[in-house]
Each structure stands twice: as structure tokens, then as C-alpha cells.
Amino acid sequence: VLRGGTQVSVCCSDGSVRKARVLKVNRFEGLARREAAEILAGDLCAVEGLGKIDIGDMVKDVRAAVGALAAEGLKVGVVGYCLGGKLCYLMCCRTDIDCAVAYYGTYIEHEIREVKNLHRPFVLHMAMKDRWVQPEINAMLERRLGSNPLVTLHKYPEADHAFARKGGKPYREADAARALALSVDFFRQYL
User: Per-residue DSSP letters for 85-132?
Assistant: First the structure.
């Protein structure tokens, strides 16, 4: 059980451990995030207050989970939104995950040099009017990722960042429905 105010230890990839205090916990209901009194193991959640978390540490955590599930004979696919999209991209570059879907792909450009290592099926849903991923970045991502046969890019010409977050200001129902349907089809193909 994890609650706001709980003291936790954050384990870093260099072997160090640092203390942090959870400010609050949120549970996801569909794509909506709701503050919760507590979260339990297995809950889809967001934890606030841990400070800087290294994306490389996140890749290692997911790699360990993928390995454990693969050892059980299970296939694994992940979906990530915003920075989670970058994590999906890195998973396809650094691990043997079966496939991944990224929405928006914020900051993928910071790790674009890893594109040569992308060896797992990957979908990127690109909001073409994204405030966080500028047009020139989207153009560069399209150039660098588009030539890989394992990559599928879906563009949403009028969509802004977070277009698939129901209840959010930039929500676009038709685009969100299209992205979800394409993602489900992709997972059915590879999982």
C-alpha cells in the first residue's frame, strides 16, 4: 500500500538509494487520472514527489518486468503517453519487448541517436499541432523513424498534445478513437 506522505527509497541505476516522500498518489480510471487515498500493487497509477527519475532506470525496471514475463512464456507490449512514449521508444531500442505504442513521444529527439538500435515493432501517434513536440521535431522524427520497417507513424493533423486524454482540454474524440483502434490492431498483430 502506498499513500501520500509515505517515505520511500528510490533505487538508482548506479546502485545508490535516496529517500523521497510521496506527495500524492493518483489512480487511472480509463485515461482519466484521479487522486486516490492509496494505491495497491498492480494499480495503474502516478506517484508525485519522487523528484528526478532517470529514464535509463525506468528502462531497466521495465526490462526486468519483460524478462520475468517472457520467462513465463508471455508476450509483452507497452503503451506510453508523453514521456512514457519516450520510454516505449527506448524499450524498442534497448530490450526484447515484443512491441510498443507511443502517444506523442515527448523528448524522443533527445535519444534519436538510438534509432539504429530500434529492433522491435513500434507505433508512434503524432499530434501535428503538439505544443510540446514542435513541428520541426515531428518532421525530424518522421525522417529518422519512418525509414525503419518496424516503425508505424500515425499523424493527427489537427491534434494537440494529450488529444487522447478523455476529459482534457485538447481531447479529440475522433482522433482518440482512431488511435485506440490502431493501437489495439497493432497489439493483436504482435501479441
Answer: HHHHHHHHHHS--SEEEEES-TTGGGGGGGGGG--S-EEEEEETT-SS
Residue 44, pLDDT score: 67
Question: Which active-site residues does the annotation give?
Answer: 82, 130, 161
pLDDT value at position 42? Answer: 62
> Residue type for 165, please?
R
> In which region does residue 51 sit, left (phi positive, over 0), alpha (psi from -120 to 50) or beta (all else)?
left
pLDDT tens-digit series, residues 127-149: 999 988 999 999 999 999 999 99
Model's pTM, two decimal places? 0.76
Estimate the crossing angle of helix 83-94 against helix 55-71, to 10 degrees. Answer: 60
Candidates 80, 90, 81, 88; CA nearest to 111 is 90
Shortest CA distance to 152 belongs to which of 120, 117, 175? 120
Rounded to the nearest 5 degrees, what angle is found at the Cα of 161, between the Cα atoms of 142 and 44?
Answer: 105
The CA distance from 140 to 137, in Å, is 5
Average pLDDT for residues 168-179, to the nearest whole number? 94
pLDDT digits over 98-111, tens only? 999 999 988 899 99
